[in-house]
Amino acid sequence: MITLKPLEPNDVFGFYSWIKNPKAIKYSLSLFQNLSSSEQIDVWYQSVLDDVKTFNLGIYINSNQCVGYAGITNISNTNKSGEFFIFIGDEVAWGKGIGTEVTRQITALGFNKLNLNRIMLTVSEPNIGAVKAYEKAGFKHEGRLRESCYRDGAYHDKLIMSILSSEFKF
Question: Which of 156, 1, 27 lies closest to 93, judged by CA?
């Protein structure tokens, strides 16, 4: 069972190991590549908790085990748009369809609660599992940022995907 709810201060402890796991952060925020100490992670995490411009929710399984977080950032009330993000750091939650379900739930909240018309995202092309999850959730490919990400000694493209409220199946 997946539950989305506000992150708690104590959830930071999971991020200590996740952000230090190269497999977990490989295709995540570039910022994660530079966080190496618990103190740096604490500062970043507190900024997430304090951010009132981003719609952040923790991802919990079994109602109390935080496995990551997701939400919508860069929300434009004028354009009724925002950018989806997700980070599942706990390897226990990988490959179980949690990413697809969380993407659907956050997208529904974006359209219903935040009254958005368009939600977009970028995803590293080699992150095949994420691309499939977004496609299953209804996101459509709309562009490519060529060689915009550098990982493992090589550049790769990021894909731009989006979904409109009229396309989303509630």
Answer: 1
* Whole-angstrom distance, CA of residue 86 vs CA of residue 52: 17
Cβ(58)–Cβ(48) below 8 Å: no
Tell if the pTM clears 0.85, that is, is over it. Answer: yes
Amino acid code (one letter) for 109: L
**AA identity, residue 85:** F
- What is the CB neighbour count within 10 angstroms for residue 113? 10
CA atoms of 18 and 40, how far apart (whole Å): 14
> In CATH, which of 1.10.240.10, 3.30.300.30, 3.40.190.10, 3.40.630.30 is domain 2-117?
3.40.630.30
| Rounded-to-integer distance, Cα 98 and Cα 34, Å | 27
Spans of the chain, pLDDT less than 50: none
